[in-house]
Amino acid sequence: MPLDAQARAVGLAADFIRTQVRPGDLVAVMTCSGGTFRVRQDFTWDRDRLAGALQQVAGDSREDFDADRWADGLRTAIERLGVLDGWRALIYFTSGRYPLAADSVDAAVRGSVALYPIDTGAPAAARQ
């Protein structure tokens, strides 16, 4: 993801954490760099810990992106969410270059995980 799109994604995620996360909600921060997913902050409702994880993400960009590895990592994240109790959602930020693979959608359906992609490459009016 280009650095300007990444900055928008981090800002949107920070806004979400600040305004939407409530005690009892479980949120994790994960990144995908070079096609490898990394958990920056495991599931918590602690806004300060989540915000700290987002600060670590800023500027962590690599150009050696592998779409197949990204799809595998996304599917793994979906499957990890699928075993949790309660309402599950995966909000992920993308530059819009790689569509969601059918097997990831299938995994989300099987695990009852709602997917919310946010295209950081789109104009601001299109994201609202």
Tell me the strand percentage band. 15-25%
CATH superfamily caption: von Willebrand factor, type A domain
Number of strands: 4
Give me the CATH architecture, please: 3-Layer(aba) Sandwich
Morphology call:
globular
Helix-strand blueprint:
Blueprint: H1 3-20, E1 27-33, E2 36-44, H2 47-57, H3 67-82, E3 88-94, H4 102-111, E4 113-119, H5 124-127
Parallel strand pairs: 3-4
Antiparallel strand pairs: 1-2
General description of the model:
The structure is a single chain. With 128 residues, the protein is of the alpha+beta class. The chain has a single domain, classed as Rossmann fold (3-Layer(aba) Sandwich), CATH 3.40.50. Helices cover 46% and strands 23% of the residues. It has five helices and four strands, in the order αββααβαβα. It has a two-stranded antiparallel ribbon. The protein has a two-stranded parallel sheet with strand order 3-4. α4 links the parallel β3 and β4. α3 runs parallel beside α4. The longest helix has 18 residues. The chain is globular and about 35 Å long. The model has no long low-confidence stretch (mean pLDDT 79).
List keywords for this structure.
two-stranded antiparallel ribbon; 128 residues
Question: What is this entry, summarized?
Answer:
With 128 residues, this protein is α+β, with helices and mostly antiparallel strands. It has helices at 3-20, 47-57, 67-82, 102-111, 124-127, and strands at residues 27-33, 36-44, 88-94, 113-119. It has one domain: Rossmann fold (3-Layer(aba) Sandwich).
